[in-house]
Amino acid sequence: MKSGTRERVRGELTQLSRAQLDLAPLIDEAGHLIARAVPYAGACWHTMEPATLIETSVRTVDLPPHGALVAENEYLHNDYNTYAQLARSARHSGVLTEATAGELERSRRYREFLRPAGIRGELRVSFVAKGSCWGSVAVFRQAPADFTAGERDFAHQIAAALGDGFRTALLGTTVTETAAAQAPGLILLDSARRVESITSTARQWLAELGFTGEPDRGLLPHALLAVADHAHATAADTTARVLGTSGRWVVLHASPASGGQAGRVAIILQSATPSSIAPLIAAAYGLTPRERELTELVLQGYATTHIAARLFITPHTVQEHLKSIFAKAGVHSRRELIGKVFTRHYHPHIEPAQAQVATTR
User: Fold this and answer.
1) How far is the C-alpha of 314 from the C-alpha of 305, rounded, in Å?
2) How many CA atoms are closer than 13 Å to the CA of 155, on its beta-carbon side?
């Protein structure tokens, strides 16, 4: 493939990232462009939670359905070129044959998924923009074909543009008027990731995540399996924020369940609060840890004097931080910040009393 073609595709992907497309058309257009520079036989796209590097959705192209074992391999087994590894690396792309030094059998993913499907070549890239990962893709070639070092480098070069595009697609979604508040739901999964018990409200949350099957028998949403496997692998609580079908953010909180069979995981599904999506806003706009703290307090409605007292800084310093936050978020006031974050990502209407408190300077 001539370098000129890759340069043109790279420029078109940069333009595409600025087009403010929704996620589905963005993936479609990006897939067509990438195929011109790096031909492939199939692809697997993910959105990623930048704070935890957990996959929050999956979309496959010309591949078999994405089963639960694929998610398990990403989080429970120490395989090569995981998306989290690539997101944290200086180079955000990798070819499996290179990572395994030509010994593909060393990869569990290759042994259990790729080789049985007749696939040899795997090229992965994590979409990192301004230090935060918003998505990823793996593209494949049927054996005996593989990917080259030049194609690997091209994939790294487009990571930032695709990260910008995915970030815009995720954070640019507005809550629909039909989105209504609902109580948290609980799902208990056994060690084989089968539903052991589920509340009625959890079934409603599954619908918000786009799941239309029967959770007692069907495949669960990929994000649910991902947080469960991550919680099991780390033996610790795991939280991920997932964009629902209505445009609001859903918080998934997974915890290893004590008692009974080992490996069980309990997952709470609930509506995101303004402060709970603050990590996403911080990642989106490149906020410092202190700016993130301050943003969370602003979203909770604290006035300047209260913020200063809680953070042990002066009101003047609060205002200086606010100026920096406003500049990074592209707004000019607390009201605009609230409107950009709260009304778009949390709820379509702000109660008048709450808006008055939140915009107090």
Assistant:
1) 8
2) 27
